[in-house]
Amino acid sequence: MSQSITLTYQKPSLSGDIKIPGDKSISHRSVMFGSLAKGRTTVSGFLLGEDCLSTIDCFRKLGVHIELDGNDVAIESPGVADWNEPSEILYTGNSGTTTRLMAGILAGSNVFSVMTGDDSIAKRPMQRVTAPLRKMGAKISGREDGKFTPLAIEGAALKAIEYDMPVASAQVKSAILLAALRAEGKTTILESVPTRDHTERMMRQFGLDITSTNRKITLEGGQELKATHVDVPGDISSAAFFLVAAAIAKGSRVTLENVGLNPTRDGIIEVMEKMGADFEIEMEDREAAEPSGTIHVRSSQLTGIVIEGSLIPRLIDEIPVIALLATQAKGKTIIRDAEELKVKETDRITAVVETLKKMGANIEATEDGMIIEGPTQLSGAEVDSYGDHRIGMMASIASLITEGSVVLNNSDCISISYPEFFEHLETISK
Ligand code: S3P
Question: Which residues bind phosphoenolpyruvate (predicted)?
Answer without folding.
Answer: 24, 96, 124, 171, 348, 390
